[in-house]
Amino acid sequence: MQANQQMIQFPGFPDFFVVGAPRCGTTSFCRYLARNPQIGFSQPKETHYFARLDNEPSETELRRDYLDRYFGHCAADCRVVGEGSVTYLYLPEAIEQILRFNPSARFIVLVRDPLTMLPSYHQRLRYLLQEDEPDFWKAWALQQARARGENIPKQCLDARLLIYSEIAKFGAQVQRLYSIAGRERTHVIVFDDLVTDPLDVYRRALEFLQVDYDGQTRFERKCPSRMYRYRWLQQLLYLPVMRRGKVIDTLRRHKANYHQDGSKRRSLISRVAGWNTIAESPAPLTPQVAGVVRETLRPDVQLLSRLLDRDLSSWLAGKIDRVTYRLLPYWGSTASDPGGGRPPALQKFLPKSM
In 10 A of CB 135, how many CB atoms? Predict the structure, then answer.
């Protein structure tokens, strides 16, 4: 952060940010937080406001374009207010901008075994029409060419989205966040824990945010992997709207609005989009592909292990993540309780230096 940039306090500014990573359970986790009556959460969950800024906003612009637009529904007696833009994890300038407006802001990061996160992320990019290569191994092999500006899908908003080996370097990203915001204001959640014991993960997060436990015991899965029925219809529904080279909306989001209780009002476009969406789990990596990905990311996983003081060697053990592929289908099918019951978009996604 530049020395001549003075910290300022801005009333009503969010207290915490769930900053990533993609396909690590952030949507579900933010939903749990938003249900707590002491927490005001943005609508929608991902504002991407600080990822879209060209210049520092004035107080009037910040109030009009950010606070009033995304947090106007929050109750005045909320103890804390937050949002969940996963783009911020990859943008140190966004974190620095946030800290200018709230030097005490806290950050929550969710991380996951990259060998299970990457197939899910690849499928998500396909669903959003950012990736046109259906085979993950071929998409992985295209990284160097795409870094040179070659073989970029026509509708891809930013080629850096397609550099899978950098997207999954959670160790480097957490280390950078520690250096900017400090360890004491950063809370890291491992996806395995969210799957196997969501109640404990939720309560620990509330302690970090200094919010009381509200009695929640059911933690359903919010955003399973999905794919579209017809690509032409998906192209219409997710047609990007551009201004000065940046995405400002999509047809679906342009029509999105909310009921007074915070639930989404389903428009005709939303209903058509729902019909065009089908559940489809990503295929696990083959042993050969997994071996290449594992060795590429081994140093970063070891870095993350040191940062968290936690053994993550199972991520590198060369076997399928049984937590994800066996327990995940039950996440949300039953309640999780203290007694031991069965546990139930993206422009500027990476640093400019990539």
Answer: 11
Taking the C-alpha atoms of residue 21 and residue 88, their distance in angstroms, rounded to an integer, is 9
> In the numeric block, which tokens belong to residue 159?
């080629």
Provide the sign of the torsion angle of the four alpha carbons 101, 30, 184, 302, taken in this order.
Answer: negative
- pLDDT mean over 189-200: 96
Q: Name the token pair of 101.
A: 């407006």
Q: What is the pLDDT of residue 235?
A: 78
Given a contact cutoff of 8 angstroms between Cβ atoms, the answer to whether 101 and 59 are in contact is no
Closest CA to 129 of 238, 223, 224: 238
Whole-angstrom Cα distance, residue 167 to residue 324? Answer: 19
Compute the average pLDDT of residues 279-283: 83
Beta-carbon-side half-sphere exposure of residue 322 (alpha carbons within 13 Å): 3
Angle at 111 between CA 343 and CA 214, to 5 degrees: 45
Pair 86, 122: CB distance under 8 Å: no
pLDDT for res 1: 41
Q: Which residues of 161-175 are buried (b: 16+ CB within 10 A; e: fewer)?
A: bbbbebbbbbbbbbe
Q: Residues of 65-84 as b/e, b for ≥16 C-beta within 10 angstroms?
A: bbbeebbeebeeebebbbbb
> 38: how many CB neighbours lie within 10 A of its CB?
17
Q: Which of 5-9, 128-132, 143-147, 221-225 has the lowest mean pLDDT?
A: 5-9
pLDDT at 338 over 90: no
- Do 116 and 195 contact (CB within 8 A), yes or no? no
Q: Which two tokens stand for residue 219?
A: 């933690």
Phi, psi of 327, deg, nearest 5: -85, -30
Q: Which two tokens stand for residue 161?
A: 């989205």
More confident position, 266 or 134: 134
- Report the C-alpha gap between 341 and 95 in whole angstroms: 38
Residue written as tokens 């000065």? 244
Q: Shortest CA distance to 151 belongs to which of 307, 57, 159, 165?
A: 159
For the stretch 241-272, pLDDT in tens is 444 434 434 444 444 555 555 556 667 777 88
What is the rounded average pLDDT for all residues in the chain?
82
* CA 40/CA 71 separation, integer angstroms: 8
142 phi and psi, to 5 degrees?
-85, 0
